Amino acid sequence: MPKKTWLKYTLICVSLIFVIVCTTISYKSTIKTSLDLENNMVTHFIDVGQGDCALIQVNNKNLLIDSGTSDSKQKLIRYLKKNNITKLDYIVATHPHEDHIGGMASVIKNFEVGEFYAPKAISSTQTFNDMIDALRSKNLKIKIATPNISLNLGPNATCIMLSPNKTTYDNLNNYSCTLKISYKNSTYLFTGDIETQAEQELIANGYDLSAQVLKVAHHGSKTSSSKEFLAKVSPKIAVISCGIDNDYGHPNRETLDRLKRLNTIVYRTDLDKTIVLISDGSKIKKLDN
């Protein structure tokens, strides 16, 4: 084959490959961004390393629970913008540990915020001070998270706070705001970092803790997810947010074993990265990454 003909043939092949690759990427992108947010609830358990962050989208409303670590804040902002977030109707900072509010100042600065909730607990860290400064810069006030507060997520959806159930705790984790969210017949329980003491208070207060999806408390730590608490929740799906090869040994083997005995499907951000669950109100399914 003459040299010029061979060069022309090669360029045509390269062009065809480029078109096919671009078409495939565009197709995948279309699938990713064409979620039916009108008739479903979409829950994103965002991979923020050794931290917690979840985005709930339903009825054109957006609820953000925690914001991960300071190290992951840029990744979080990019993720929210990629999902066309311009306003967060509600933000809940479950408690003021850095791995839960590390990106909060950046989130507040980058998006319109409706209402901001947090327990009546303070911290002396720079991360906490940055969050407070960001709220002040937008004239936002913290609404104190207490049991039985409801957030309006629109038709067929409910969101109610179940904790904290005391005003003072020795352990900051137990100040964590627990939320139960329902969309039609689908139920989710978000637990922050509550430990056994707070779990026992939830049980003693007689709350309906049953949920199909459980955001496992404290990254799967052995100080949370007691046998009695998990039996009350009886989750079909459990999501553990933790970092790869983290220094804490999360998730704990005992916690994983308890979930296994309940025949619970376990997803982990250290293994599965960001986990997206979609519910039509009856069935809950995990979207492929």
From TrEMBL:
Entries under InterPro entries matching the protein: ComA-like_MBL, Competence_DNA_uptake, Metallo-B-lactamas, RibonucZ/Hydroxyglut_hydro
Superkingdom of the source species: Bacteria
Membrane spanning stretches: 6-27
Keywords: Membrane, Transmembrane, Transmembrane helix
Entry-linked SMART domains: Lactamase_B
Domain called Metallo-beta-lactamase: residue spans: 50-244
Pfam families reported in the protein's UniProt record: Lactamase_B
Protein name: Metallo-beta-lactamase domain-containing protein
UniProt source species: Clostridium estertheticum subsp. estertheticum
